[in-house]
Amino acid sequence: MLLLKEPHVFLIMGSAVAIAAIGVRVLKLGNARCIVTGEPVDWAVEQPRTRHVTGSILFGIGWTVAGTCPGPVAAMIGEGRLAGVPVAVGLLAGVAVQRMLAPRKSVDPHIPAPAAAGL
C-alpha cells in the first residue's frame, strides 16, 4: 500500500470515511441525541492545530513500534495474541496522558440526563 501498488487499504479507509460522514449527517438531520450526554449530534469545523498533528505523529509512532493496528486490540487479546497486551496498555496510557493534558470542560447543568433504557 505504501508503495502505491495496491489501493485496497485506501479504498477500505475511504469507504469507511464516506459511510461515517453519511451516517453522522443522517443522525444530525434526524435531530438525534448523544446517548450518554443527551446533547444533539453536532460538530464544529476547525482548522488543524498543533495538537492534531502531534497526536497523529504519536499515533503513527505507536502503531509503528507495536507493529500492529490498535483497532482490534480486544480481539487480539481474546485470541491469545500476547502482542495485544502492550498495545492495550499503550492505548490506555495514551488516553490517561491526554486526559491529564487536556483542558477541563465545564459541565452544563441544563443538559438533560439521558433516559435509562429498559427501566
Notes on the structure:
It is built from 4 helices and no strands. It has helices at 8-29, 50-66, 73-78, 84-101. The model has no long low-confidence stretch (mean pLDDT 81).
Report the principal-axis shape.
Answer: globular
* β-strand amount: under 5%
Portion of residues within helices: 40-55%
Structure summary, number of beta strands: 0
Strand-helix topology:
Blueprint (H helix, E strand, L loop, with lengths): L7 H22 L20 H17 L6 H6 L5 H18 L18
Question: How would you summarize what this structure contains?
Answer:
Helices cover 53% and strands 0% of the residues. The chain is an all-alpha fold and 119 residues long.
Task: List the keywords.
single chain, 119 residues, mainly alpha, 53% helix, globular
